[in-house]
Design a protein that fits this description.
Largest sheet: 7 strands, mixed
Distance between the termini: 25 Å
Structural class: alpha/beta
Strand content: 15-25%
Number of domains: 1
Shape: globular
CATH superfamily: PRC-barrel domain
CATH topology: SH3 type barrels
Order of helices and strands: HEEEEEEHHEH
CATH class: Mainly Beta
Helix content: 10-25%
CATH architecture: Roll
Number of strands: 7
Radius of gyration: 16 Å
Strand order of the largest sheet: 4-3-2-1-6-5-7
Number of helices: 4
C-alpha cells in the first residue's frame, strides 16, 4: 500500500471537478502516510520499508527514516537509521529510492527494536552519514522528480551503487516508471 492509500485526510487526492486544489503532496507530505512506504534501490530491488521517521527537535528537520530489513513478520528484522537526505522520492511509483546495494545494506550499521542507539550522539551520526555518503551538517530532504537536485549532484547525495556509475539522475531514471531524471 502506497502513501496515497494511507491518506486518511485526502491531502494527496487530485482536484475534482468542483475546483478543489490537488493538495500539498508531494512537496509536503504527512509523516504518518510515509510509514510503511517501500524503499528500493537502483536495481528495483526492495530493501525494506519505513518503520519510523525521526525528527531533530532542535532544528525541526527530519533527521532519519528508520528502515526495517530482513526477518519474517517482524521477527529477526534489523533496523537502520537512514539519513533523510539519502532517500529519493519516486512519485511515479509512490516509493523511496535508496542507492545502496542489498548486500551492502546487510553490512550497514543497524540495531534491533529493543536496543535503539543514541541518535543524538555525533560519533554515531558521523558513522551513519559516512556509510550512506551524506553530510551531517547539511539537513536536506529527499530529492524528488525532475530537476530536484537528485543523485550525485552535491556532497549531500548518495551514489548509484551500480558499477561504473557516478550517481547521476540520468542513471537512476532507468528504473521502470520512475520520474526521476
Amino acid at each position: 500500500m502506497g502513501y496515497s492509500e494511507r491518506d486518511k485526510y485526502g491531502m494527496y487526492k487530485a482536484g475534482d471537478t468542483s475546483g478543489d486544489s490537488p493538495g500539498p503532496g508531494p512537496a509536503l507530505m504527512g509523516a504518518d502516510t510515509l510509514l510503511g512506504e517501500k524503499v528500493v534501490n537502483a536495481y528495483d530491488i526492495e530493501l525494506g520499508d519505513i518503520k519510523e521517521i525521526m525528527l531533530d527537535m532542535q532544528t525541526g528537520q527530519v533527521a532519519y527514516a528508520v528502515l526495517a530489513f530482513g526477518g519474517f513478520m517482524g521477527m529477526g528484522e534489523k533496523l537502520f537509521a537512514v539519513p533523510w537526505q539519502a532517500l529519493h522520492l519516486d512519485t511515479a511509483n509512490k516509493r523511496f529510492l535508496l542507492n545502496v546495494d542489498k548486500d551492502r545494506l546487510k553490512t550497514a550499521p543497524g540495531f534491533n527494536k529493543d536496543a535503539w542507539p543514541d541518535m543524538a550522539d555525533m560519533q554515531w551520526a558521523n558513522t551513519i552519514h559516512s556509510f550512506y555518503g551524506t553530510d551531517p551538517s547539511r539537513p536536506r530532504g529527499p530529492s524528488m522528480g525532475p530537476g530536484a537536485g537528485g543523485l550525485g549532484t552535491d556532497s549531500g547525495s548518495s551514489l548509484d551503487p551500480r558499477a561504473g556509475n557516478q550517481g547521476g539522475d540520468t542513471d537512476i531514471s532507468r528504473i521502470r516508471g520512475s520520474n526521476i531524471g
